[in-house]
Specification:
Length: 456
Amino acid sequence: MEFDPSKLTDGFLFIWNVENVYACDDLINSPTFIAPNLEKTEWSMSISRESSFVHLKRIDNNSVAEAIEFDVIVSVVLSDESKNLLEKENKLKFRKDVSKFFVFFLNQLIFEEDNLKIYCYLRKSEELNESLIRCSALTHLQSERRNDVWKVQNFRHLMTNDPKTFILESTGKESPQTVLTGRLSKRSKLFHVEVSVPDFLCYKKIFIIGKISVLAADGSLKYSIKGSFIFNNNTSLNTVSKFPTGICQASVLQLSDEYLTHGDLLLMCDFFISNGEIYHEVRESCYLRNKHKFIAESHILAHSMIEENIPRVPEEDTGESTQDLKSSHEFEQPTETLEDDVNYEYLDKKYCDVILTTGNNTFPVHKCILCLKSPVFKKMFDTDMKETSNKNVDIDDLDSNTLRRFLLFLYTENLENLQWEIATKLFYAAVKYHVTSLKVKCSCFLESHLSMSNVC
């Protein structure tokens, strides 16, 4: 059963996003995080390429609690959550400064990914836990991708004593220079490629992953060779780092019309180069209770100042009457609000730059508003679609009333007189066009109005 963080109600959830995992040569450590609702215990995580494990450690030496038993779930997924790579669940007792390990079985596959998301869920075993607290953190491994085509001149008649050199340039001023040197072996007649970084001692560490392929006349890649290389303070200046395999000269010459251009061989070089720098940050600390968790979907820097429909919390009795508060903090209220200004029903149509059509109804709209609120519309308008060229987009899957209400929400975040049927249709629209705030509000409405008469 796959781990579903959206269903958690108590305990502590640590979400660790790791970017450029492939640039890890051994160990990646997370930022230290504190679980306020678990005796204020402090924790850290790490993943190891060489040892193939996930490492969870309690590091709070000053905590009063000597030993605590936890239910622990560790889940590793791709960053877009499209694939679950690992899931482990255990009941573990953690003492101060004690580590626990979760073994990977897919280490090579995991460390070839670009980005990973690691969930670590902790709750006290067989105890009443406080409401869920969520922490989200980011670890970014520096990595630069370099692509270029290396022309190996006169490869048809290449001799063993004729090394070929190519510099894989960077546009970054402070980036390490990477030099490729190719030599034809005497016995096997394989074209071996060596990798060197002349100024590697100026950096803490240089980690390189490279792929070199023969670039055929039709643009396809053949005879690819791959390798990874580390340069650090322990690397000797005389060390020769080369790809484990080479490119067979005879194989290339057999199909010289496809692989050679006037006797020259073109090699596609695709490299990731990391200087070992790692950046950490804690991106979110969320203490919201479940009934308020939808607020986390909104943004404090939103372009709209329209009041959000947040459930009211009972007011605390301060001893002052409402009238006293009103008189002591009296303002002159504006007669018009931003909602009045941008209400879709009363927009000045002369400024609209695209038309949405459903059935016999048309809706002039502003492209910038659609792109701002929906990544699906943004992708649509960013591509060379026929609809965008004539400024007319057909919306076949929404009826006119649903589309009108959908657009009203995009402009005003307003859901007027919401009923069950229109809520289900708006929920469908929100999912299709990736409007998270609408999806959350419709979901909350449908959940709160679920009954025997409308359940499927």
